[in-house]
Amino acid sequence: MRGRKRSFEKYPPCDRCKSSVHVVGYGKRSNKTSEKQTYYCKKCNHKFTPDDGFKGVRFPPEVILQAVSLSTEGFTLKQVVEEIGNHYDMRVGESTVHDWTKKYEHMLSKKELSR
Ligand SMILES: [Zn+2]
């Protein structure tokens, strides 16, 4: 059969064992902000969603982009942390905001261009 191996390629690699061979689609998981395809790795019984740029981040993309936005507007890290705390009732570290700014600044400028 032609292309048998290729059928696996549409699935992202498992974020635990890094193999996509045992990965199957597991349906969609949605929250307030977005809908994400969830996958399941049969090898290590692990459910995961692929990396969309916000992997490993405990905060909603909306909060992150807001923080980055404030930061690029000239707010100090301390002020950004306070703003996020006030608006979203979330505690973020200053170093986290600093990392976010470095990491997601380009996403923000792209967003603003399309406005
Ligand atoms: Zn796995």
Write a compact overview of the structure shown:
This protein is of the alpha+beta class and about 120 residues long. It has 3 helices and 3 strands.
Structural commentary:
This protein is an alpha+beta fold and 115 residues long. It folds into 2 domains: 5-48, N-terminal domain of TfIIb, CATH 2.20.25; 61-113. It has helices at residues 61-72, 77-88, 94-113, and strands spanning 23-30, 35-41, 46-48. Strand 2 and strand 3 (46-48) form a beta hairpin. The longest helix has 20 residues, at 94-113. The N and C termini lie far apart (48 Å). The mean pLDDT is 82. Residues 14, 16-17, 19, 41, 43-44, 46 line the site of zinc ion.
List keywords for this structure.
115 residues; alpha+beta; N-terminal domain of TfIIb; 2 domains; 3-stranded antiparallel β-sheet; 3 strands; 38% helix; 16% strand; binds zinc ion
List the ions, cofactors and other small molecules found in this model: zinc ion
- The oligomeric state is single chain
Described by the principal axes of the CA atoms, the overall outline is elongated
Number of domains: 2
Which stretches are low in confidence, meaning pLDDT under 50 for 5 or more residues running? none
Q: Work out the strand percent.
A: 15-25%
Give the total of beta strands.
3
Summing up helix and strand content along with how strands pair, one would put the structural category as: alpha+beta
Which H/E pattern describes the elements? EEEHHH
Q: How far is the N terminus from the C terminus?
A: 48 Å
List the strand order in the largest sheet. 1-2-3
Tell me the major beta sheet.
3 strands, antiparallel
Q: How large, in whole angstroms, is the Cα Rg?
A: 18 Å
Mean pLDDT: 82
Query: What percentage of residues falls in helices of 4 or more residues?
Result: 25-40%
Number of helices: 3
